[in-house]
Request: fold
Amino acid sequence: MLEDLTIKDFALIESDHLEFENGFTVLSGETGAGKSILIGALSFLLGGKADVSQIRATRNEASVSGTFVISNEKIRNSIGEDDEPINASEWLAMHGIEKENDRVLLRRFIRDTGKSGAWINDTPVTRAELAQFSSFLVDIHGQHEHQSLMKISEHRKFLDANAGITTEVEEFTKKYAELVQLRKELDLYNSSDSERLRKLDMMNFAVKEISEAKLKKDEDVELEAEQSRLMSFEKIFSDVDSIDNAMSNSESSIISVLKQIRRDASNAAELDKALEPLNSRLESAFYELSDIADEFSSYKNKLVYDPSRLQTVEDRLSLIYNLKKKYASSVNASLGEVFSYFEQAQKFIESNADGNNKKEKLAELIKILEKEVLLRAEDLSKKRILSAKKLDVAVDSILANLGMLGTKFTVSIKQKEGNDTVQRCGPYGKDDIEFLISANPGNPPMPLAKIASGGELSRVMLALKTIFAKADTVETLVFDEIDTGIGGEVAVAVGAHIKNLSKNRQIFCITHLASIAVYADNQIKIEKSVSGELTSSNVYFVKGNDRVKEIARMLSGDADTAQSMEHAKSLLEKYSGGI
Reply:
């Protein structure tokens, strides 16, 4: 659920911080006050469109942040790289983001330069990532954004949840994936036996050639260093011999001179104790330089030019370069690429050595699995058709109460076409599922996305959400434009439905109808004010007598008459249990 929302310099809102509770919260205010701006700010936070026009006049940046409480949802033990997250907690786990006290903080900004940014806790995310994550948190209905039920791919999930077959479908998906993998393996064999055998010969040759080379890790690097030393032998010997002579092999060498200086310094230090630190440092330098001189002398004595060793090194490097040319990306590539090719070649040989035998085994396994997949798909389809009929009736009944009498809801279930099991089935069975609606008697059913009225769309969503409340994991729902074209008893019915749905969900609803607003647990009022040349929308909760006044205004446009106030108070006592 949404716990709090902080908005700064977004559209007409200068600065607001709101803290929310669960249940039903209604947003009201006069026409043009900016009710939809609050929903726009929430939509922006959830990954909606970011545009510099959303920045408040005279400001250079707009920002919105919100804290969401996330329930302890189940995270699967094994999640593959290609798997899609099934809930908010799993999305966070897959992206290495941890909840803090079961909460996450979403932040987003846009500057007048067009630059924007978003974070989940302290982790920067892209707009696409933010939108994907927030789709598990909030559904906004009425503005064609964040509407999971507008996605045809989601219709199958909701129908399966309503039919109670979600687990069966997951098991089917695993079997289907197993069948597809086996078919791919068989296709590899059937595509071209001659090609497979040619590649098998090539892999066998590669394994033999690399094995015989008896390569060692980083051998090429070590050999190149040795080659460099051998090719530069004369220069190295000349330099080292010069250093050796200068340091120790003459009466005027550095070591000989230092010995005399050391004796003189030692004598001077005995006569003046103030010189002892310098004498000590000189002694340390003498021993360090003596050790260096010995090392150079030892290195020179070991230097031996071996033309045969140079030839051996160059031959070995030539062999390695040839192997790289064949089995790595280039002669300059790491020797590790040759080792990787060797491993891949071995795996290919292991899986293709007994080609015909394996082909027969695969074909038999596929035949058995195809029968099982098809039987499971048919069973799922029967359960879906049965559930769809019940769903049609249930949705039509609710829509009638919501002022859409004559509207017909239909779950379209069409079987996939194809000649074999893989074509006739998909990862979720043999059915293509879509929710359709006929808004007027006699009109053919149309996709939900083609409903023109935002109010009609919101009421369809409300009906579906009422039915799917237990199956849907999205905890926060926002209904905008839900009261378009309705009033009287229909509005009362809409309010009652939202109230009932809010028992298990956090609901936000923009409305101008008092008969809906009185059902709310909380009410937010949006007012417009003008200061100088700047217009602002002010957002605040109304409680007690202030709420009675707001309901009275919604009833008659006048919050000051005793009659309006009394009527508002009676409605709140009847539908909200008091003020």
About this structure: The chain has a mean pLDDT of 87. The two ends are 24 Å apart (CA to CA). The CA atoms of residues 228 and 310 lie 9 Å apart.
